[in-house]
Amino acid sequence: MFEFIIAADLGSSYTRLASRTRLKSDETRVALDPANSNRVLAVGREAGELLNATSVYPVRGTIANVTLCALMLRRFSLDMLKRHTLAGAGLRIASPFDVSSTELSAALEVGREAGFTETRIVDGALAGAIGAGVDIGSPEANLTVNIGRDRISAIVTANGGVLKRACAPFGSSAFDSRIQAHFAMEHSTLISFYAAEKIKKELKTPLLRVHGKDSATGQPLMRAVRTREIIEASEPVMRRFAAFLTSVIGDLHPDAAADLLDTGVTLIGGGANMYLMPESLERLLGIPVKRASNAESAVILGMRRGMRLLAGPEAEKISGIGFSRSPKGFLGGQSM
Fold it and tell me: How confident is residue 1, by pLDDT bands cut at 50, 70 and 90?
């Protein structure tokens, strides 16, 4: 047995950690010295506050930089636990089901380089459904959709099992790209990716003031744009999301698909919090769509719940629905 175990949900925008008693959330970002790229100045939110540093994002849908991701994870873990070493510690990393062997090896290598004694891969989709409060043991089918920055995943559960899994290599950042393109085409205005992301988060405001530069002259300018215009411009991306979910539902048994008229779709992940996301998908799909109350933290909360149950007398009761003490690891997967 390990002295302690840490669960990690490594997202493109945020990394969330959990032990049995503690939670931590921070930005997935590393700041490097511009004069020496081998020197790490800060990680997380602190990295974003450094103006004279080069920001690197070690996760983009999957792990993009093993060394920096491991260093970031180590610092986050030590800070959360208030310790100076990770010796005797186990790590559980949430992962999509369709990762390649290369991506799987990268996740395991992150745990090793961070200093964990053992690393195991967790079914992130199933953990997210559990963390969102979805009754995966229900005889009726339930569809849970995780909208990340660079990836969207879906899982359909019923009777304690998984009926369908699916992933697609796009996420909420597709809206940012669409907003950038809209301003360039319709307003001859160039805006940064981060300005587009800010616009996406402020869609509850009736009128938006957007700062950028004129695409012809290069001069800085400010455009006042109605929110409705941005929402309408983003409709093609929303339809792309709906098309993905339509294909998932189309692969289900007729009875399972019919269940969704009652159970609907549960949205989790940071992208689920986008303004009008549930309402727009419900309009396009024709079935109920709701946002989980803990959408951003559903995966890590599901992982923590699993750790608590596996440590207690209820472990045997849940072994049949994905939690296991076997070498496959917590919620299945592979280990190092």
Answer: low
